[in-house]
Structures are given as structure tokens and as C-alpha cells.
Amino acid sequence: MFRSDVRSYWLQSYEWRSPFSNWWVPGYSLVIAAVRGLTLGLLPPLGVMLPIAGVAYLTAVMTVYRVAREVGSEVAFELGLLFALYPLVGLTYSAYPMSDISAIASFLLAVLELIRRRWWTLTLWAACAMMLHKVMWFFVPPLILTAFFQDRRSRAILPLSFLPLLLWISGGALKYHSLLWFVRFNYETHTVMKQGLPVLGGLLQTLEMGSFTKLAKGGVILTVLVTALFTAFQCWRRRQWAGLWTAGVVIFLIAAVNSYEIWIAARFSKVMVIAWCMLSAGRERPRWTPAVVALVIAVLVATNLGYGWYLDHYFETAGH
């Protein structure tokens, strides 16, 4: 488990005095450094990182439940469970301690504060989300704009959510003598296509590779795309703007990212649970039979275990 990105986050946490990585924003590594310092460096890497991921996971699950309750959904428990066991990546990317779940938890807390119209805490969680993962640069600004137009009182507060990110970008610009240092590497690595179309090229290139794993990966991404399009359409019909732009960002990721990084759309597609919370508001609670509930839970857990096995096998084969 202490391989690839997880190992890189740990090593980057030792560079907290100059946290200007071309690859990642520094939030997660700074949290790791803080926890390591508070525990006097006595814990091994996973002893520090797994509790961080675990706390973030539980926070995210509880926040989904609270968001659903706030908007009046009768299936808040089911939506929280769906998020917790989200197909393939619900458990896997919580046990595999990358920054995803911490960023998602911060974003979900920001959404909860938007619903409650608590602008200072929304600003705090939005800032944290953008400093924990770069993909949140696409999810958070529409959230800020929604709040900006909802309430005039928020307009003097919400811009502060961008302050930590702007300070980090400015510090890196001084170090690297480049104003675009923080996006150039991601653009060249994650969006530039070596072949294929500029839109949906990553999905098509994945399918064109032809191997079983690539076809399966492409099938999952295609399913996410169809789900996101349907979700966006339903949110547009019901004027659920928060759900619309959440699904819209997932569509954008699939359309814009190349095959090297397109799996990020699957990893962050579980954020669409926000849209499903909105769409379920005011509807009657379905009558689930115990057999159906047990079957759905078993299938969801099985997908996570299967993908977890694949990740372990992949890293073993790659020798990471």
C-alpha cells in the first residue's frame, strides 16, 4: 500500500518549508506533516496516513447523510450508504490513503454550509478543498458562484476562499520564475493528446487500446458519463443548480482528460451523490425489501474488493 502516489505524498510532507510541487497542491502533505509532528514521529507512514483517510472517509459519509437530511430527502441513510460503498472506489480510495477522500470531505462540508447559508465556514471548507486536490479547482468555483448570487451578505466573505491558493501560486511563481508553473505540468501530462480527438479523446483512446483491462476501464468511464449526463439533465429540469454543475464537472473531466488520467473521473464521480440528494428531496421513501438491500450491499462491496485486488496486483506487477 505504501507505493506510488501514497509514497510520494509522504516524501513531499518533509518539504513543508517549501511546499511547491508541480504535481500536487500541498494541503494533504501538510496535514501528514502536522500529524507526524503531533505524534513525535513515532508512527510509521501508514500509521499516520490511514487514520487521516479514515477520519476523512467517516466525515464524508456523515456529511452526505446530513446534506440529504437538510434538503428534505427521505433516503438520507441510503444515500450515505451508497457514498460509503460507491462502486469500485467508495472503500478502495479510503483504504488507499491518497488525498481524494480528504478533498471530497472538505467539499461536501462546503456544500452543507452552502445549504445552511453559513458563509464563513463555507469559505473555510472551500479553501481546504482547493488546497487538497487540484480537481477541486473545478468543483469549488461553481459552488462559490452559487452562494455569491444567493445572498449578498456572502459576497464580501467568499473571495477569501481563494486566498490560500493564490498565496501558494505566488510563492511558487517566485521560486520557479513562471506564472503558470502550477498548471503547465498537469496540462502537458493530463490533457495533451498524443493521438485522438481533443474532446472525449481520453475515453476513445482507452477503448482503442483493446486489452481486457482497458476495455473494462473504458466501460466504467462510459457508464459514469451516461450517469452524469442523465443526472445533469434531471437537475436542469428541476432547477437544481448545485447538482447540475456537480454532474457537469464530471462530464468535463471525461471530455477533457487524456487516457493517462481519465480514471480521475471515476474516482470523483461519487461527488454526484450531492445531485442525487437534491433530486430525491420531497419524494416518497421507496420500500426496499431486505433481500434487495442485502444484494445491493453485497454487489457494492464486491466491486470495491475486486478493484482493490486489481490495484494491489497492478502495483506488484509494475514493481512500484
* Mean model confidence by pLDDT: 92
Report low-confidence residues grouped into runs of 5 or more.
none
Computed over alpha carbons, the radius of gyration is 20 Å
Dominant shape: globular
Residues in helices, as a percent range: 55-70%
Spatial gap, N to C terminus: 10 Å
Instruction: Classify the beta-strand content into a percent band.
Output: under 5%
Strand runs, count? 0
Biggest sheet, in brief? none
Q: Which class best fits the helix and strand makeup?
A: mainly alpha
Count of DSSP H/I helices: 16
Helix/strand order: HHHHHHHHHHHHHHHH
The tally of structural domains comes to 1
Question: What would the keywords be for this entry?
Answer:
single chain; 320 residues; mainly alpha; 16 helices; 70% helix; globular
Walkthrough of the structure:
The chain is mainly α and 320 residues long. 70% of the residues lie in helices and 0% in strands. Helix 6 runs antiparallel to helix 7 (119-132) and helix 8 packs antiparallel against helix 13. The longest helix has 29 residues, at 290-318. The mean pLDDT is 92.
Q: What is the structure about, briefly put?
A:
With 320 residues, the protein is mainly alpha-helical. The chain has helices at residues 4-12, 27-38, 45-70, 76-84, 92-95, 100-116, 119-132, 136-150, 163-176, 181-191, 201-208, 212-237, 241-256, 264-268, 273-280, 290-318.
In terms of topology, how is this protein built?
Elements: H1 4-12, H2 27-38, H3 45-70, H4 76-84, H5 92-95, H6 100-116, H7 119-132, H8 136-150, H9 163-176, H10 181-191, H11 201-208, H12 212-237, H13 241-256, H14 264-268, H15 273-280, H16 290-318
Helix pairs in contact: 1-2, 3-4, 3-6, 6-7, 6-8, 7-8, 8-13, 11-12, 12-13, 12-15, 13-15
